[in-house]
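In this section we walk through a basic example: taking a raw amino acid sequence and producing a predicted 3D structure, encoded as discrete structure tokens. The instruction is simple. Fold the sequence below.
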Amino acid sequence: MAKAIGIDYGKKRVGIAISDSLQIIASAFCTINTPDIFIFLDDLLKKEEIDCFVVGEPKNLDGTPTDSTAITEKFVEKLA
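The resulting token sequence is shown next.
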């Protein structure tokens, strides 16, 4: 079974987590400068068998969008 990649997208840096091959536990993997994220993901996809991406959706405690929500949505569109 392939691994899952967790992405915490930010304006300056992106946090990356990777699961085990059974997708039971994900662990912190690294932090990447935001402009380098697609180069990093392309390289990672060549090295690892990846099944899916899980991208954190920034929300306020009351469920409303944050300043980062629109930026993250644009990233997800480009990632797709």
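Looking at the output, two observations stand out. The longest helix spans residues 37-47. Residues 10 and 35 are 10 Å apart (CA to CA). In the next section we compare this with other chains.
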